[in-house]
Structure to design on (429 residues):
């Protein structure tokens, strides 16, 4: 690997006698891992059904090293049983674990590794706002939130300033997984190498400072701010946090971790947990819940037939865009002046006549909750994921289709033929 000479000089100075060991770490291929999505399957159950050989990641309760190349195309991946994540990135979970999580903001969230990790820790309770400034990346984040069946998450796309204005002293936990110079990921993403320079490190540090300033405004008194990067540069890591603490005496440093590839089986990562010891915890303005619209009635008529028990949660249609309906988690604050890609669970669309369920509804449902569940063999799954029609002699109507017990999407059975309703963009080519 052609590492920049200036980068190597900086690492030699930083690491001293351990520098040769650091250099040797580039001879090993990048570490691959997955994190079991405990919202869908327990760790034990996954270990029982896993088609992959798995070895635990020591610092992540549900993380496992992975040898298989094909983890991203297995039916269990489509069913959201796991998220493929770089093992060092999972260390953030250790820092977020003890924090209160009634109101959580993930400020730089795409593609969703840490959003999905925190969502699993929240176990569907509280509200999680996942933001990504780049709209294209926010779409991928939203798809991952959907695939993993996360019910209490809104996905938005805006800048940190807008969120700071709307949510002063609001969140119990704010995560800033900052855009950085990526030094820790050179092995995994060598395309980042030509962009590296001391100037770029300085530019990243300045941007991180700005993001941290906005993030700090959103943290409620008693709440936590988690900061992480995948770089070794002190300007972006320890020095960034020391400078922040000098500017913000209302925060204290509680924990700090730096993962080097010659010390752990993972790429480079830095994370710090800060606590805001002074300040208020302000109230937000909640979403208006509409209970008696025509769309709601249509949803309930559908739900009587689809579920074994109709969901009791508050149903809302606050997003009038193209007649879509969402199951908005209680306590979700109004999210104004920003692109909203997802607001809790998307239930479906209502065109004024017929209610059509959304893929997200299937992904957030458990087998025992649906009246009609079609369990597929692995071979049938591949056909379903390619968008093919399958045959099933069951009662006519909408059904959830799954790999064994785990939902993959929707189908609609008419006289023994199950029409495939997997969204075209998610089909396997
Ligand atoms: N947390 C993500 C995960 O675990 O999958 C990875 C986040 S990545 C390290 C940093 C993200 O910050 C990128 O998606 C990038 O688009 C976003 N970003 C870039 N500039 C930003 C800015 N000025 N403010 C907020 N986010 C920014």
């Amino acid at each position: 690997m052609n590492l920049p000479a200036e980068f190597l000089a900086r690492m030699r100075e930083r690491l001293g006698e351990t520098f040769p060991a650091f250099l040797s770490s580039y001879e090993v291929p990048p570490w691959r891992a997955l994190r079991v999505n405990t919202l869908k399957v327990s760790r034990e159950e996954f270990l029982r059904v896993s088609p992959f050989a798995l070895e635990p990641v020591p610092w992540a309760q549900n993380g496992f090293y992975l040898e298989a190349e094909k983890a991203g195309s297995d039916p269990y991946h489509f069913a959201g049983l796991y998220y493929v994540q770089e093992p060092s990135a999972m260390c953030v979970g250790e820092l977020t674990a003890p924090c209160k999580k009634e109101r959580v903001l993930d400020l730089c969230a795409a593609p969703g590794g840490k959003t999905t990790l925190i969502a699993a820790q929240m176990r569907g309770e509280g509200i999680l706002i996942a933001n990504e400034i780049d709209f294209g990346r926010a779409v991928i984040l939203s798809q991952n939130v959907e695939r993993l069946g996360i019910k209490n998450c809104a996905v938005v796309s805006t800048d940190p300033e807008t969120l700071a204005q709307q949510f002063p002293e609001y969140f119990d936990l704010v995560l800033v997984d900052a855009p950085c110079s990526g030094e820790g990921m050179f092995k995994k993403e060598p395309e980042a190498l030509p962009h590296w320079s001391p100037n770029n490190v300085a530019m990243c540090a300045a941007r991180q400072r700005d993001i941290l300033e906005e993030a700090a405004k959103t943290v409620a008194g008693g709440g936590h701010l988690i900061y992480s990067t995948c770089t070794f540069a002190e300007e972006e890591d320890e020095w960034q946090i020391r400078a922040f603490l000098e500017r913000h005496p209302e925060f204290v440093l509680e924990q700090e971790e730096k993962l080097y590839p010659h010390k752990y089986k993972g790429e480079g990562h830095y994370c710090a947990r800060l606590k805001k010891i002074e300040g208020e915890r302000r109230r937000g303005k909640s979403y208006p819940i509409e209970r008696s619209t025509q769309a709601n009635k249509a949803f309930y008529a559908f739900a009587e037939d689809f579920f074994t028990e109709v969901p009791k949660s508050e149903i809302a249609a606050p997003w009038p865009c193209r007649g879509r309906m969402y199951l908005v988690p209680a306590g979700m604050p109004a999210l104004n002046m920003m692109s909203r890609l997802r607001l809790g669970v998307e239930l479906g669309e209502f065109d004024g006549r017929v209610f059509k369920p959304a893929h997200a509804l299937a992904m957030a449902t458990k087998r025992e909750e649906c009246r009609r569940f079609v369990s597929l063999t692995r071979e049938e799954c591949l056909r379903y994921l390619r968008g093919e029609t399958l045959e099933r002699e069951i009662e006519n109507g909408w059904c959830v289709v799954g790999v064994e017990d785990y939902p993959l999407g929707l189908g609609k059975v008419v006289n023994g033929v199950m029409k495939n309703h997997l969204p075209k963009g998610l089909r396997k080519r």
